[in-house]
């Protein structure tokens, strides 16, 4: 959709912003439609699909709710000058939100890695019990599998995200996550 100046229409800009923010949040069209329905709008997955492809316009009330759900500032989306302060802020907030989503995913993966490494250490203990006094050559030295793995893990920083985890559980970190629509569950 292009306006008389050859610029993308406000409707298209809004639809693209909603789609981009929805995808960045890992939200499906069905999820967004359901959340709009909970807020009293007659929305479904097909409604979101039509909006995103420009086949359906939205009312001001719908636009405000959609922007709120996907975490984008409506005023910044409607700003026509991409160099304006609100537009720049919206771009920065969208990029920041994407980085935070990645950090949260990394935190989950690090937690999984710690569990798997504990399992690996337990297997090394079992291996050592089977080997008894018979040491195995690891890195050119004779040592137990457990000693080798503990040495190896001492140089890996699997807990590098523990500071991030503490921060996101603090009042300031929780407020930051909430600002970007990324409230974490109470207990992980």
From TrEMBL:
Source domain of life: Bacteria
Pfam families per UniProt: HTH_31
Location of the HTH cro/C1-type domain: 18-77
InterPro entries: Cro/C1-type_HTH, Lambda_DNA-bd_dom_sf
CDD domains referenced in this protein's UniProt entry, alphabetically: HTH_XRE
Coiled coil: none
Gene3D superfamilies referenced in this protein's UniProt entry, alphabetically: lambda repressor-like DNA-binding domains (1.10.260.40)
Protein known as: HTH cro/C1-type domain-containing protein
């Amino acid at each position: 959709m292009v306006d008389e100046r050859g610029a993308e229409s406000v409707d298209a800009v809004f639809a693209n912003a909603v789609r981009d923010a929805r995808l960045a949040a890992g939200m499906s069209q069905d999820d967004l439609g359901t959340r709009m329905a909970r807020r009293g709008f007659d929305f479904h997955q097909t409604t979101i699909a039509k909006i995103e492809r420009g086949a359906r316009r939205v009312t001001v009330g719908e636009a405000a709710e959609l922007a709120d759900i996907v975490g984008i500032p409506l005023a910044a989306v409607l700003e026509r000058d991409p160099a304006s302060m609100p537009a720049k802020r919206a771009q920065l907030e969208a990029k920041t939100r994407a980085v935070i989503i990645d950090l949260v995913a990394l935190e989950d993966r690090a937690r999984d890695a710690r569990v798997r490494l504990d399992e690996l250490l337990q297997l090394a203990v079992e291996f050592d019990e089977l080997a008894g006094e018979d040491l195995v050559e690891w890195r050119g030295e004779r040592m137990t599998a457990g000693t080798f793995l503990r040495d190896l893990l001492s140089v890996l920083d699997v807990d590098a995200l523990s500071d991030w985890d503490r921060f996101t559980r603090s009042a300031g970190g929780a407020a930051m996550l909430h600002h970007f629509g990324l409230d974490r569950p109470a207990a992980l």
